[in-house]
Design goal:
Layout: H1 15-18, H2 27-38, H3 43-53, H4 78-87, E1 92-93, H5 95-100, H6 103-106, H7 111-115, E2 119-120, E3 124-127, E4 132-135, H8 138-150, E5 158-162, H9 168-181, H10 195-205, H11 214-217, E6 222-226, H12 230-233, H13 237-246, E7 250-254, E8 264-265, H14 271-276, E9 280-281, E10 285-287, H15 294-309, H16 318-324, E11 325-326, H17 328-337, H18 340-347, H19 351-363, E12 367-371, H20 373-376, H21 381-394, E13 404-407, H22 414-419, H23 428-438, H24 450-458, E14 464-468, H25 472-475, H26 479-487, E15 491-496, H27 501-504, E16 509-514, E17 523-524, E18 527-528, E19 531-534, E20 539-543, H28 557-568, H29 576-581, H30 583-593, H31 600-603, E21 610-611, E22 628-629, E23 645-650, E24 655-656, E25 659-660, E26 676-679, H32 681-686, E27 694-700, E28 706-716, E29 723-727, E30 752-758
Parallel strand pairs: 1-2, 5-14, 6-7, 6-12, 7-10, 11-22, 12-13, 14-15, 15-16, 23-29, 26-28
Antiparallel strand pairs: 3-4, 3-16, 8-9, 17-18, 19-20, 20-21, 23-30, 24-25, 26-29, 27-28, 27-30
Helix pairs in contact: 2-4, 3-4, 8-28, 9-28, 10-21, 15-18, 15-19, 15-21, 24-26
Length: 760
């Protein structure tokens, strides 16, 4: 087992290795990581602590979990240290690097090796004659991009993609540029992650966001955590879980895999526990539904609540239901008509297990239900989240402290992107206000989302593609199809901090425009600037970098947007240069356009920033009925064809989205291996597979086409029968471009139909 090692995550033998500190990881491993990157063991930790104590604070470019409201001095996590260290590397990628390596050669490199070369230092333009990127001045780069946009016959022949790390000010300018050009083609990473959450919550409650904040997490009686690998994806959530356990709250984890953070943790700022490796529980119950079985489980809990109400009048909050909701009778009829046998079949859990969760829910005066991509990336993601809201409404778990829906957004400002206008289907009210304040005429037709953008590229309808951050080529589904689509563009523009696959899979012309990282000083004519971000609980606060930029040739994201806009819109009356001189000017305009951003510049400078009001939290429902609306969907049919499995793509612990820090996944016991598939032991035996055998995985799309990966090592794991899992982005190739939810338009990355056979 020299090349790779693995362990079943449920095996107690590996518990110390898996769970020494789910919020921090083993201190030694973090140190080793940072030594490998920088030769300075505590670089990332010191940087975060220092910047968090500077006036204005610092927002980690990682997850969107809120900052502590208690003023914790070490409110950090292992992955946050990795993000910051990875950004602050001393390695550089300049003209000499690109002169040594052709794009064809770089295309053979791994994702880790590409990003590990270091920070991009100057604008580069692709030269097809030599297959090299060559230097280009900022003025010429802006002219090239601006001319390409200006000369399009149709503004909808361009698309403007956004990654979740883009700050609010740059986001606002970016969407303003797109709409002044005449398009709503604003695909973003939400289209692949939490689109189902926004659509479900909007339909049920009249708001696309959760209603909870950290104070609710600190006072609730019961937490239901669904489809979340907190230890790797939102490590600071574990502080809230540990504190909840200590005060006696019940914590129910619902996930096909029992992840490290669903058992116990050590919190970084609890120094005595860190020193003695004393762990705190983070769960009181773990339930493992089949992939996609969450809907059936929630339906089962609701069914048990209705049955309880026959003998206990307090099981339902009838006053709340009558005063604030519509559709209750229809919903009750659907639930009562759903047989327990069907619930068991579709969830792969027993009636007793569903009733156990229902007992926790009924005994709690206040409950929060939280979820992430394990719930959203399914055909029935919207229906599942509507069912979650239904369950909350039954007991009045809305509009009061310690209760409500609480989606976990993955990237640091993905929620802020949507708030500030990145929306391919923008509401008319927002466009009306934008036009009035900014003096433009926005288009009123819908634009392309991620899947629509890829299909439009492939069909030759989309000529210019701009990406503000991210790694679109690898994050998107159907990798080969997406690559072909990008290569059909006339121009691709990537605004980035590091080299990645999207620079190598490019259009006929291509630009790499390097930007400042969030850790770095952003100095404009008006002095040192700060940008704002919105976390997953709608708190908006400022972030200020304090490190010297990696190169004197880097520009900020607002400056890059303004430069392209100035070249693309030479007759624009929008004061692009004026905005970039002082970001307060951008915020002044935002305060006039965006609901909840009134008095923006003052409020965002408060110690913890400010929270955008959520009408549903105040029991004000901006729905057609003016009330919270029950849904009454039927359970989805999860029946599989004989011989097939349901496969979910997941991230490893040493990974953030498409950034791969190493080939290890410590909490799942994996070392030096990414081309793997986690399987149930009985499913392995049925196929004649043993641990570390090599297997071929073939997906079967809705249209009958197949896609395959070969020689993936099989790893036994504690996962329900009929289910399998493997890493993204490697397995994104298996998700066909047409396999997206008809409810949310999200690619169904968490529920692919596959066959697995021994490699020949």
């Amino acid at each position: 087992m020299d090349e790779s090692t693995a362990a079943d995550g449920s095996d107690p033998e590996f518990a110390p290795y898996h769970h020494p500190a789910a919020g921090w990881g083993a201190a030694k491993s973090v140190t080793e990581f940072m030594i490998g990157q920088e030769k300075e063991p505590l670089l990332g930790t010191r940087a975060i602590v220092k910047m968090n104590h500077e006036n204005g604070g610092f927002d980690c470019p990682g997850c969107a979990w809120p900052d502590s409201i208690k003023g914790i001095h070490l409110d950090i996590c292992e992955n946050g240290i990795k993000h910051v260290t990875w950004e602050m590397t001393h390695k550089r990628v300049g003209r000499e690097f690109f002169a040594r390596h052709t794009v064809s050669e770089l295309s053979t490199w791994s994702e880790h090796d590409l990003e590990n070369q270091g920070r991009l230092t100057e604008p580069m333009s692709y030269d097809p004659a030599t297959d090299h990127y060559v230097p280009i001045s900022w003025a010429d780069a802006f002219d090239l991009a601006g001319t390409a946009l200006r000369e399009l016959d149709d503004p909808d022949a361009a698309a403007f993609y956004t990654s979740g790390r883009l700050g609010n000010e740059a986001t606002f300018l970016y969407q303003l540029m797109a709409r002044e050009l005449g398009t709503n083609n604003l695909p973003d990473c939400s289209n692949m992650c939490h689109e189902a959450s926004g659509r479900a919550l909007q339909a049920a409650l009249g708001t696309g966001k959760g209603t909870c904040d950290l104070a609710d997490w600190e006072t609730t009686d019961a937490l239901f955590i669904m489809g979340v690998n907190a230890a790797s994806n939102a490590p600071r959530m574990l502080t809230a879980l540990a504190e909840a356990d200590r005060r006696g709250a019940q914590i129910v984890h619902i996930n096909p895999l029992v992840e490290a953070g669903a058992t116990r943790t050590i919190i970084p700022h609890e120094f005595r526990n860190m020193a003695t490796f004393h762990a705190t529980k983070t769960s009181t119950l773990n339930l493992q539904p089949r992939i996609g079985g969450d809907f059936a489980l929630i339906r089962g809990i609701a069914k048990a609540v209705f049955e309880e109400s026959e003998s206990d009048p307090k099981a339902l909050d009838r006053q709340f239901i009558e005063r604030y909701t519509v559709g209750f009778d229809r919903y009750r009829a659907v639930v009562e008509a759903t047989p327990w046998k069907l619930i068991e079949e579709q969830s792969a859990l027993t009636e007793a297990e569903a009733r156990q969760a229902a007992r926790v829910y009924c005994d709690a005066d206040r409950s929060i239900i939280s979820w992430c991509l394990g719930v959203t990336q399914h055909e029935h993601g919207v229906d599942t989240i509507r069912e979650i809201v239904n369950l909350l409404l039954l007991r009045g778990n809305l509009g009061r402290e310690g209760a409500g829906p609480s989606p976990v957004r993955g990237h640091s400002n993905v929620q802020g992107n949507r708030t500030c206008g990145i929306d391919n289907k923008p509401p008319a009210r927002f466009l009306d206000r934008l036009d009035e304040v900014c003096g433009i005429t926005s288009p009123r037709h819908d634009g392309y989302d991620v899947v629509g953008t890829i299909e439009a590229m492939r069909a030759g309808k989309l000529k210019v593609f701009l990406a503000m951050g991210g790694n679109f080529a690898l994050a998107a589904p159907d990798t080969a199809y997406t690559f072909d689509a990008l290569r059909s563009c006339e121009l691709t523009v990537q605004v980035s901090t590091k080299l990645n696959r999207s620079h190598l899979v490019h259009g006929k012309r291509a630009l790499i425009l390097p930007c400042l990282g969030r850790t770095e000083k952003d100095i404009q004519r008006g002095g040192l600037q700060q940008t704002s971000v919105e976390d997953s609980m709608a708190m908006v606060h400022l972030s200020k970098g304090m490190k010297k930029p990696a190169s004197p040739h880097l520009l900020s994201e607002p400056a890059i947007v303004a430069g392209i806009a100035g070249a693309a819109l030479p007759d624009s009356t929008t004061p692009w240069t004026h905005y970039v001189e002082d970001y307060d000017r951008i915020r002044d305009t935002m305060s006039q356009v965006l609901d909840g951003f009134e008095d923006f510049n003052r409020r965002v400078r408060l110690p913890l920033g400010f929270r955008i009001k959520q009408p549903a939290r105040e029991l004000v429902f901006l729905t057609p009925s003016g009330r919270a609306e029950f849904s009454a969907a039927s359970l989805p049919d999860l029946t599989r064809e004989p011989g097939t499995l349901s496969l979910a793509t997941v991230r490893s612990h040493d990974q953030w989205n498409t950034t791969i820090y190493s080939d290890n996944d410590r909490y799942r016991g994996i070392k030096n291996l990414r081309t793997l598939v986690f399987m149930n032991r009985d499913d392995m035996r049925e196929r004649g597979l043993a641990e570390f055998d090599e297997a071929d995985i073939t997906s079967i799309a809705r249209d009958g086409t197949t896609r395959s990966v070969h020689n993936y090592k099989v790893v036994p794991y504690n996962i329900p029968r009929g289910c399998a899992a493997g890493y993204m982005p490697e397995l994104n190739v298996l998700c066909a471009i047409g396999d997206y939810s008809t409810q949310s338009d999200q690619p169904i990355m968490k529920n692919l139909t596959v066959t697995i056979h021994r490699s020949l």
